[in-house]
Amino acid sequence: MLLFAVTAGAMVANLYYLQPLLAAVAAAFGREVTDAGYLVTFTQAGYGIGVLLIVPIGDVLDRRRLLSIMMAANAAALLAAAASPTFAMFCASSLLIGITACATMMVIPYVASIAPARTRGKSIAQAMTGLLLGILLARTVSGLIAQAAGWRVVFVSAAAAVAVLAVLLRRAMKTDPPRGRLRYRQLIASLAAVVRAHPELGRRALYGMLALASFSMLWTGLTFLLSAPPFGYSEAQIGLFGLVGALGAVSANAAGRLADRGHARLATTALAIVLLASWGLLALGAHSLAAVIGGVFLLDVGVQGLQVTHQSVIYSIAPEARSRVTAVFITSCFAGASLGSALASALYAAYGWAGLCVAGGLFPALLLAVFLAFTPRARKA
Q1: pLDDT recorded at residue 378
Q2: Could you tell me if 272 and 223 are in contact, meaning their C-beta atoms sit under 8 angstroms apart?
Q3: CA 141 to CA 160: how far, in whole Å?
Q4: How far apart are CA 381 and CA 185, in angstroms?
Q5: Is there a contact between 155 and 78 (Cβ–Cβ < 8 Å)?
Q6: What letters, b where the CB count within 10 A reaches 16 and e where it falls short, cover 261-294?
Q7: Neighbouring C-alpha atoms within 13 Å toward the C-beta of 190
Q8: Does pTM top 0.85 for this prediction?
Q9: How would you label 90-100 residue by residue, b for 16+ Cβ within 10 Å and e otherwise?
Q10: Given a cut of 80, is residue 318 above it in pLDDT?
Q11: Mutual orientation of helices 104-114 and 2-13 as an angle, nearest 10°?
Q12: For residues 214 and 275, is the Cβ–Cβ distance under 8 A?
């Protein structure tokens, strides 16, 4: 479980190393910092594409071999980013990093498949804790490395970490037995059938999309706020805010235990309220560091807890199609994340921090409204 958790964290971290480096990368290529913000959108969109088009293959092919191939490709994409001579090549490398980082979502279904049913929520929560810590600590690690050795070294270091983990995982995982002969086109087409057969999957995918849009708006926009007056922070200082968010990872295990005990509905409602409240505090952050810290903590508690709750629910359905269930859910989530990153760049440029916070708060408000509207009709909420 420790190896799976570390792998999940290291792979998904590749999507987020860039966020505290936006100002430095923009300067290196002679671009505006808000232009560099769209690089995050490229990476997250690539991840969504990879999850949609590659992860479902895990339902019929050997996941051990597939994971090895994807991690090798991810290491190559990271090295390409480090060596990029132009902004266009860096954009292309960012897209490839996102696509190949979808290997993360081959690890989580594997954990769900080997865990006993009575403790599946706890096992998923352990793997998700690693994943969520990777998301948040990526910013701290990249900020510190960039401050000491330059932003390109961040991507070289990440490639080395992925290569080592690929070797360790290949030794640790067992080869999957044959699990079906669906053709690729049939496999992708069956995603819609899985959603129709399990309406709760579609609802949880929508809730995940709204939460990740809110999450991504904060972490992309936060760099714009903290690198400008009155803060004027460096890459390393901005990266340290990932430690604040990492404290919110404690909510992942608590949410997993609640889901195992049949309280997913209560957890979803409470965590959506926490997420909405976080934006009220963040709105005060333009001139208050304490408000920023408090808002970041609450937002990460809400988002991390919601993600574990959603996955505890969806992995209890369609055991034979867990990779496709993952593809539907995570594609929706990262469509939301891509939207959030793009909106953060556009809204901050047009309306500043206040406009970004208003839009950020609309996503959890909509999540809560839709969830409460569907709760009476849902058998498992």
Answers
A1: 44
A2: no
A3: 14
A4: 32
A5: yes
A6: eeebbebbebbbebbbbbbebbbebeeeeebbeb
A7: 17
A8: no
A9: bbbbbbbbbbb
A10: no
A11: 160
A12: yes
Task: Report the amino acid identity of residue 173.
Answer: M
Residue 293 has pLDDT above 90, yes or no: yes
Q: Which two tokens stand for residue 28?
A: 């290196």
Confidence of residue 379 (pLDDT cuts 50, 70, 90): very low
Phi and psi torsions of 307, nearest 5°: -60, -45
Domain spanning 2-377: which superfamily?
MFS general substrate transporter like domains (1.20.1250.20)
pLDDT tops 60 at residue 381: no
AA letter at 327: A
Token output for 45:
């969109």
Cα–Cα distances (Å) from 358 to 213, 283, 348, in that order, read 13, 8, 11
Give mean pLDDT, residues 167-183: 79
Residue 265 CA to residue 271 CA, distance in Å, equals 10
User: Where is pLDDT greater, at 215 or 318?
Assistant: 215
- pLDDT at position 5 over 70: yes
**Integer CA distances (angstroms), 218 to 33, 212, 231, 299, in order:** 16, 10, 16, 9
Contacts of 177 (CB under 8 A, 6+ apart): none
* Out of 171-185, 201-215, 284-298, least confident range: 171-185
